[in-house]
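During the second year of the project, the team shifted from modelling isolated chains to modelling whole assemblies. The rationale, set out in the original proposal, was that interfaces cannot be judged from single-chain predictions alone. As a representative example for this report, we include one of the complexes processed in the last quarter. Its constituent sequences, exactly as entered into the pipeline, are reproduced here:
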Amino acid sequence: MSLYFYIFLALALFAIGAATVLVRRSAVISLMGVELMLNATNLVFVTFARIFGDFNGQVMAFFVMVVAAAEVVVGLAIVVTIFRSRRTTSVDESNLLKN
Amino acid sequence: MMPAFLENTPQMASTGEAVLFVVVAAMMIAGALGVLFLRKAAYAAISMVVVMVGLAVLYLMHGAPFMGIVQVVVYTGAIMMLFLFVLMMIGLHASDEYQTQNRTYITVAVSIAVVLLVGIGVAVAFTGLPGTTEFQVDAYSDAPVEQLATTLFANYWFSMELSGTLLIVAVVGAVLLTNGDRLTKRHSQRSVVEAKMAAYAARGRHVGQHTAPGVYAQSTSVDVGALSGETQSVVTESIPRVLRVRGLDRSIGNLDPRLAANLRESQLGNSEQAIHGSAAVARVTQSEAWGMGGKAAPTGLNQQVETPVADDAVNPVSGETEEQN
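Output from the structure prediction step:
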């Protein structure tokens, strides 16, 4: 089997993650969709690191993990703050900036 | 089995890797679809864990053991647990009922995802990469981790510093955000006093503490009101409000009929049979302390009372011997 199937798997994960972000209304599950997309790109990085025999790909995946951890911490803190003041985690109902 | 256009691309190392890949990939796709479709956020988080553990297996198959371990520790261990903690705070069974929204939105979202998948997939499939099949380093030695460390700290040391800064800023931001805004005024000692006095001026609300429940020397139970020495009656407010609302409070008559009778005499103005009337006072034996009436105070070894004195000391309030506890 070709190593390209890793890329195809990562593409499928990325597409499902994008659909999750767009379809789901809960902010927590939307964040999980973002995580899914980030993980898919990580898989692409590591796969290319193997195909080219180059460790730069793994280093990139490592930095993506660091940034994803920071992003999730801040994102979930925002979700908790919104939930405490508005009693909802729906991304459709957080519309204070509308109009 | 394989499309012809993929035959010139880098191949997997062995049939075993292909089999493992197919199995893990199927589980990961199922988990990802679970994130997309499961209504309850907790189930979606568990599906996400499946995807992440599968990714760790794929990293190990790629000869990247460090990335595999970090995937398990950071993503599955830390980030998904953080998700679950937040779900615990906002309600485990929170569901977003995403099916009820406008059909057009769902159609557009799924179309975007499919276009993404097909478009990039075709682009990748027709891109020839001059890759190799063999691992560049021995995957069963320390070399993958060592070379990763060399690359990371030789070429990317500044990015490492920056990512450390980013993590600290993220931590401070998360602490600031979760501290939250104060929605009501903060109460200081002075503001509490002023509010109490204002309530007293407006409605005549009692300023001090409420009387504690229970009858002195009879009961300390919370469902019996206190006796007021001022009015010689039961202070109803001393019983907790919840018990009063539910009708769980007890009357004095329920607790001690004689005490209730004495109280009634007090309110009728009977100075003899009242609660502190002359009959009750007369029953109190005199103290044996120094300088008081009664027997001489015990001195020396006599302070140890060998034989218990017959307990004829009656209860000062009800005039009843202590036969009931």
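Chain B touches chain A through 91 residues (CB under 8 Å). The radius of gyration of chain B is 41 Å.
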